[in-house]
Amino acid sequence: MSxxxxxxxxAAAVIAVAAAWPLTTFAxxxxxxxxxxxxxxxxxxxxxxxxxxxxxxxxxDKSIPDEVRRKKFTSLMDQYFExxxxxxxxxxxxxxxxxxxxxxxxxxxxxxxLALNYANQFKExxxxxFVVGNETENNKDxxxxxxxxxxxxxxxxxxxxxxxxNNQFKIIDVSIEGLSMGxxxxxxxxxxxxxxxxxxxxxxKALKDKTGL
Length: 213
What we know:
The chain is an alpha+beta fold. The protein contains six helices and eight strands. Helix 1 packs antiparallel against helix 2 (66-80), helix 2 crosses helix 4 and helix 3 crosses helix 4 (100-118). The radius of gyration is 18 Å and the shape is globular. It starts with a strand and ends with a helix.
């Protein structure tokens, strides 16, 4: 399978966080004894290619205001990431102690927090390449390999973990040189919660303070 090249900064890889619960999407037919697997509208590789293409078009224009760039970044997360699952994972066991409404609020705060940290890095695009490789299946998830090829250093290996939700592949984890960004984010957030006696609202408040929401 041929590789597709996109020019995109490594910041595209760090906007994701992970989840680890198995999920398979099926649709039942009219016979109770049979199920039919529904094919995703796009392959996992095609989703990553689409993300790269949109990021190029929407985030790299140096003339747009930073606030607009962050909004576009957040919109891409809505489109390509399963943020509810991501949010539960980065909260660790503490997500069970809060309501669905609180998880939804946290999910939005998380998107704005990541956008604040990473969106403006797209202004620094300098002609390096983002190469989309092959996809493989493992434990009901699909992994898309890719490489960030830098002009001034060794290439960075990036693996995207994908899962089907309603017949669409969504990103649920990104690993850079074998390091899961989701686990890294979870460790950071868990530390904040634990320092505040297990109170998730302390983390929510910290994210509000950082994002200004």
